[in-house]
């Protein structure tokens, strides 16, 4: 019931959006539905007056009534055509222009990223992809179902007031529809049953035409056998289809027989009323006209209602996304990010467990990241390094504990302001299929200048990539839009350059920034990053956090955090950790040996 109310509210809102955006088309669509229903009733009533006027020998009235009947019938038919054109227009204009961006906005601007990572949510996001048209279409289908219900009510009112016996036609029309559907189901089933024989035919046909199998077919002399099998499969498919169509037709004939019997009895009863003088000849004509159209009205009412229900697979995720976005929007007064860092970032007993999992990915992490420091996070696979980075970026809310930025809890900070004060590149960096310059400049849309682009490219050691691009900065990246394909390492350099577009971020997160690079490029990038981090740090107290598997690259960091199973097991400077002889010293030793 709650869900039904939610759907009804959503349809009302969609109708309001549609009315606001395209008032003429929306009103036109609704008018088509209402006028269609009225024209349907007028056709039947006019036919009644044609006959009654003729019985009364009033030729003028009969001609006017006949003209009205023809006009309303034509209107009813042509209105359907206009309705489908207007419906298409609304789907294009409201669905693609309004709803698609609304879905993108709801999904793409939420502060956190759970809805993009958790499978239950991902399924819903997939169902919504490019499906906004189905959302508005469902509202139109509801309108269509209402209009068909109106036709049905009018038909029943007309039939019922003419003679209650005529209402017998309704169950007969419903039975006809049910039997007709059963007939269709038989035909569909036969198409499914013959699919395998069709595949056999296709396969044998392909074999005979293929060069590779052709040699074997000739050398083994298998051609006659293949042809025989092809013939047998074709014969089986033909028989299956014929059987399905025959059975389907029998159901259909049975359906029409039921309708014809109901129709004949009803009309016969009205004729009897005419003889008794309680009905007119026109009533017989009215009953015949409306009765003949009744079956189509029932069928269209059922199919639009079924269509509206069928779109629930898109409506449900759409409703869910709206509610989810509403629940997860930041509300209330929030503090802005500081201009510069004085103390640094404090992690207080930080815990985080991913939705749908039991084991915490980060557990009880407490550490101070001093302002102006370069922090390295190391640890084995799955030890919680990336999760820690995402928590620092505010992409997930801690399950317990807190992150304090110069004493302000991140959960009380305006996340937009925090994000615009930081830069980050993650392991699964984006690949923007646009020009080289744009793919980097997107890292700082507010402050991007040619000089900033040059500096970012240099910091990411991407100058040599840039110089080899055929159209320089304007080279289209990726083949999707006819550009050049670049290697994984080159995509990573573009991502790194993008993260360097902000000249002085307060927090600079680098999650495995060099995983796709070769050893010399990796060292060059690290050296350049270390130098850049120190330079930024002196200006704004900025903190750089680097995740890396390669220990040689992190030795120069001011603070090294060693993670294991989500816990922080060691922290300190390189020399201190080495002399402590713990996990870091052990892993560093293994790493140094394998690279020596
Ligand atoms: N989106 C997610 N949903 C559920 N569990 C996740 C998700 N992302 C990570 N995890 C789990 O959380 C734990 C920590 O993962 P995380 O990616 O933070 O580790 P990591 O140290 O960065 O690993 P790697 O070095 O392989 O990148 C792992 O057990 C991982 O399986």
Automatic annotation (TrEMBL):
<keyword id="KW-0812">Transmembrane</keyword>
<dbReference type="Pfam" id="PF00005">
    <property type="entry name" value="ABC_tran"/>
</dbReference>
<feature type="transmembrane region" description="Helical">
    <location>
        <begin position="156"/>
        <end position="179"/>
    </location>
</feature>
<keyword id="KW-0067">ATP-binding</keyword>
<feature type="domain" description="ABC transmembrane type-1">
    <location>
        <begin position="215"/>
        <end position="310"/>
    </location>
</feature>
<feature type="transmembrane region" description="Helical">
    <location>
        <begin position="25"/>
        <end position="47"/>
    </location>
</feature>
<feature type="transmembrane region" description="Helical">
    <location>
        <begin position="132"/>
        <end position="150"/>
    </location>
</feature>
<feature type="transmembrane region" description="Helical">
    <location>
        <begin position="59"/>
        <end position="86"/>
    </location>
</feature>
<dbReference type="GO" id="GO:0016887">
    <property type="term" value="F:ATP hydrolysis activity"/>
</dbReference>
<dbReference type="GO" id="GO:0005524">
    <property type="term" value="F:ATP binding"/>
</dbReference>
<keyword id="KW-0547">Nucleotide-binding</keyword>
<feature type="domain" description="ABC transporter">
    <location>
        <begin position="345"/>
        <end position="590"/>
    </location>
</feature>
<dbReference type="InterPro" id="IPR039421">
    <property type="entry name" value="Type_1_exporter"/>
</dbReference>
<dbReference type="GO" id="GO:0034040">
    <property type="term" value="F:ATPase-coupled lipid transmembrane transporter activity"/>
</dbReference>
<keyword id="KW-1133">Transmembrane helix</keyword>
<protein>
    <submittedName>
        <fullName>ABC transporter ATP-binding protein</fullName>
    </submittedName>
</protein>
<dbReference type="InterPro" id="IPR036640">
    <property type="entry name" value="ABC1_TM_sf"/>
</dbReference>
<dbReference type="InterPro" id="IPR027417">
    <property type="entry name" value="P-loop_NTPase"/>
</dbReference>
<keyword id="KW-0472">Membrane</keyword>
<dbReference type="InterPro" id="IPR003593">
    <property type="entry name" value="AAA+_ATPase"/>
</dbReference>
<dbReference type="GO" id="GO:0005886">
    <property type="term" value="C:plasma membrane"/>
</dbReference>
<dbReference type="InterPro" id="IPR011527">
    <property type="entry name" value="ABC1_TM_dom"/>
</dbReference>
<dbReference type="InterPro" id="IPR003439">
    <property type="entry name" value="ABC_transporter-like_ATP-bd"/>
</dbReference>
<dbReference type="GO" id="GO:0140359">
    <property type="term" value="F:ABC-type transporter activity"/>
</dbReference>
<feature type="transmembrane region" description="Helical">
    <location>
        <begin position="250"/>
        <end position="272"/>
    </location>
</feature>
């Amino acid at each position: 019931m709650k869900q039904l109310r939610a759907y009804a509210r959503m349809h009302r809102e969609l109708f309001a959006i549609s009315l606001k955006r395209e008032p003429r088309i929306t009103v036109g669509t609704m008018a088509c539905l209402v006028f269609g229903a009225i024209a349907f009733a007028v056709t039947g009533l006019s036919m009644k007056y044609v006959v009654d006027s003729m019985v009364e020998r009033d030729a003028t009235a009969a001609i006017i009534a006949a003209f009205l009947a023809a006009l309303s019938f034509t209107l009813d038919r042509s209105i359907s055509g206009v309705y489908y054109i207007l419906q298409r227009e609304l789907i294009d204009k409201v669905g693609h222009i309004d709803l698609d961006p609304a879905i993108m906005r709801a999904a793409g601007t939420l502060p956190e990223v759970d809805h993009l990572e958790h499978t239950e949510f991902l399924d819903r996001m997939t169902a919504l992809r490019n499906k906004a048209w189905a959302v508005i279409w469902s509202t139109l289908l509801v309108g269509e179902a209402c209009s068909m219900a109106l036709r049905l009510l009018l038909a029943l009112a007309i039939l019922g007031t003419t003679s209650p016996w005529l209402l017998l036609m309704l169950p007969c029309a419903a039975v006809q529809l049910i039997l007709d559907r059963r007939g269709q189901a038989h035909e569909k089933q036969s198409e499914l049953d013959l699919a395998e024989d069709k595949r056999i035919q296709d396969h044998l046909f392909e074999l005979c035409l293929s060069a590779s199998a052709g040699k074997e077919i000739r050398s083994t002399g298998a051609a006659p056998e293949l042809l025989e099998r092809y013939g047998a499969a074709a014969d089986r498919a033909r028989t299956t289809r014929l059987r399905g169509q025959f059975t389907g037709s029998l159901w259909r004939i049975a359906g029409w027989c039921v309708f014809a019997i109901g129709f004949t009895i009803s009309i016969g009863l009205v004729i009897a009323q005419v003889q008794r003088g309680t009905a007119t000849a026109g009533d017989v004509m009215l009953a015949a006209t409306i009765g003949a159209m009744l079956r189509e009205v029932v069928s269209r009412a059922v199919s639009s209602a079924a269509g509206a229900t069928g779109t629930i697979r898109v409506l449900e995720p759409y409703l869910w996304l709206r509610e989810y976005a509403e629940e997860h929007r930041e509300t209330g007064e929030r503090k802005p990010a500081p201009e510069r860092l004085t103390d640094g970032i404090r992690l207080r007993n930080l815990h985080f467990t991913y939705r749908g999992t039991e084991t915490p990915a980060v557990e009880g992490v407490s550490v101070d990241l001093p302002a102006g420091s370069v922090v390295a996070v190391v640890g084995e696979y799955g030890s919680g390094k990336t999760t820690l980075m995402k928590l620092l970026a505010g992409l997930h809310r801690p399950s317990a504990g807190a992150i304090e930025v110069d004493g302000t809890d991140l959960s009380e900070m305006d996340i937009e302001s925090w994000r615009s004060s930081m830069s980050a590149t993650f392991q699964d960096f984006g690949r923007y299929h646009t020009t080289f310059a744009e793919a980097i400049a997107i890292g700082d849309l507010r402050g991007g200048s040619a000089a900033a682009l040059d500096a970012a490219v240099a910091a990411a050691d991407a100058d040599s990539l840039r110089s080899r691009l055929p159209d320089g900065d304007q080279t289209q990246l990726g083949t999707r839009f006819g550009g050049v394909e670049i290697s994984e390492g080159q995509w990573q350099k573009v991502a790194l350059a993008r993260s360097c577009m902000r000249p002085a971020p307060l927090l600079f997160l680098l999650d495995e920034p060099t995983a796709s690079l070769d050893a010399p490029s990796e060292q060059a990038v690290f050296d350049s990053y270390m130098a850049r981090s120190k330079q930024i740090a002196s200006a704004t107290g900025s903190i750089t956090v680097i995740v890396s598997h390669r220990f040689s690259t992190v030795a120069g960091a001011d603070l090294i955090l060693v993670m294991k199973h989500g816990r922080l097991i060691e922290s300190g400077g390189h020399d201190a950790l080495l002399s402590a002889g713990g996990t870091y010293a052990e892993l560093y030793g293994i790493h140094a040996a394998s690279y020596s």
